Amino acid sequence: MCYGLTRHQTKKLAFDYAMANDICPDKWKEFKTASNDWLKGFMSRHNDLAVRKPESTSLARATSFNKNNVKTFFEKLSTVLRKYNFPPHMIFNADETGCSTVTNPPKVIAERGSKQIGQVTSAERGALVTTLFFINAAGGFLPPVFDFPRVNYKDIMLNNGPPGALGLAQASGWMTEDCFVKALEHFMMHIRPSKENPALILMDNHSSHVNLKVVKFARKNSIIIVTFPPHCSHKLQPLDVTVYGPFKTRYRIAMNEWMLLNPGKTVTIYQVGQFVKEAYLSAFSPQNITQ
């Protein structure tokens, strides 16, 4: 429930329990907490427990992901699926991910006992390119949409990038409602939904996705949109683990190999398309998408 106990809190809880049951050792009473030896023994007796580093989860996410919200979402999704009877290749999941010019380097082989191992990165802080993917339930995907942190888009930004990809530009590098409408036009060009054969898109309810322009465009072009409940995409978005996880790993590998082949050169947004091409063609396998 996102309120896990630290080592100290666990020892304090054990001390309180021992005091309440009048079985507290004198050493515990001196420090008002259980000992480290007790904690080691407790962990060894319970092999299903481990000390883990938690992910930061905002209060909004922790409270919004509840039984009622999830039930309502799946009821609406079931209603839409029964009404339109979509085939798998017309059910799409849309989500953005950030592709930075600086990422954590992969693990390397080094001498045992070395105190510090370095690996060259492009810079300390990188530029972020937002990349949008459309992936369907049959295991297929569309050429991605790139949103570059520039005022104007130039074709050179997608040199050596994925064939058929759409390039956009926005000063902040974040997806906006105008950019998302252009992304839906890109979707239309490849899928061509109609009243007889509509398409379903599942996505989060970010303001760039759910607004008047997007809704009008979707209704006009036979696109049905179902959004995840607010602050619940971290649990309900299936792309994060099965697809984007392998994609980010291969993206880092592609960047690291480029750095090794181009010593002294800095990675810029003009290489992002190349790294994405190498990464998503191997990571977006039908097995990863449909599992």
Characterization of the model:
- It comes from Euphydryas editha (Edith's checkerspot).
- Residues 170-291 form the DDE-1 domain.
- Strand 5 (199-203), helix 7 and strand 6 form a beta-alpha-beta unit.
- Helix content is 43%, strand content 13%.
- A 6-stranded mixed β-sheet has the order 4-3-2-1-5-6, with helices on both faces.
- The model has no long low-confidence stretch (mean pLDDT 87).
- The protein is α/β, with parallel strands linked by helices and 291 residues long.
- It is built from 12 helices and 6 strands.
- Helix 6 runs parallel beside helix 7 (212-220) and helix 10 (244-261) crosses helix 11 (269-283).
- It has helices at 7-20, 26-31, 36-45, 59-64, 67-84, 177-191, 212-220, 233-236, 239-242, 244-261, 269-283, 286-290, and strands at 91-100, 128-136, 145-148, 166-169, 199-203, 223-227.
- It is globular, with a radius of gyration of 24 Å.
Mean pLDDT: 87
Estimate the global geometry from the Cα principal axes: globular
**Rg, Cα atoms, Å:** 24 Å
Low-confidence stretches: none
**SS-derived structural category:** alpha/beta
How many E strands? 6
What percentage of amino acids are in beta strands? 5-15%
Q: How many H/I helices?
A: 12
Query: What is the terminal separation in angstroms?
Result: 26 Å
Q: Can you give the helix content as a percent range?
A: 40-55%
Spatial order of the strands forming the largest sheet: 4-3-2-1-5-6
Secondary-structure element order, as H and E?
HHHHHEEEEHEHEHHHHH
* Biggest β-sheet description: 6 strands, mixed
Organism: Euphydryas editha
GO molecular function, one term: DNA binding
Pfam families: DDE_1
InterPro entries: CenT-Element_Derived (IPR050863), DDE_SF_endonuclease_dom (IPR004875)
